[in-house]
Amino acid sequence: MAILTPTTELEAVNVMMSHIGESPVNTLEDDNVVDATIAQTILGSVSREVQSQGWYFNTEIGYPIVKDSNGKFAVPANTARIDAVNTATSSTHSDLDLVMRGGFMYDRINHTYTPDADTITVDVIVLLDFTDIPETARRYITLRASRVFQERHLGSSTMSEFIAQDEARALAAMRNDEAWSGDHNMITNSATPRSITTRFGFDRGVY
Questions:
Q1: In 84, 115, 120, 145, which residue has its Cα 20 to 30 A from 4's Cα atom?
Q2: Structure pTM?
Q3: Which of 80-84, 94-98, 152-156, 164-168 has the lowest mean pLDDT?
Q4: 152 lies in some domain
């Protein structure tokens, strides 16, 4: 008996293809299969949307950034959201208000990309490859992308309702995974994904 493994990107695309009645593809490298290419694009877009909400598996807490040779603080290329939580400065770090602009941290108070700091510490939400996220997230993203793909391709309200039911169950499973693996501390609310949700000011409840 074959061993079950987490959903691959190819399998996710083929699930999407099945929802519009198309045959599965053997590779994602063939640009001639237009529907598969569109499906892959939608899958990537939905993955970014879902991951940008911030989950235990793509949240880095207390991530240090050291300034480069130009005095700038470059953020990881796959950053979705970021918030500076601490700085080590040579003077008064209380006068820094750092946000991400163009791949670097920018000081809004002093209007500079080279703030007076040696190291900054950030909480950051990163975007991961499809194969680097948990199976519950892959399942939810696949079904959400399937519904979007079907609605744009066929526009069947009946099919959309069927997929939406599976999508809701997948989201519930993803939330359970978050509660089980996220190590939430409801009392202290310290250094947990829940504190990240509060810090960035958004709600992952429904989207």
A1: 145
A2: 0.84
A3: 94-98
A4: no
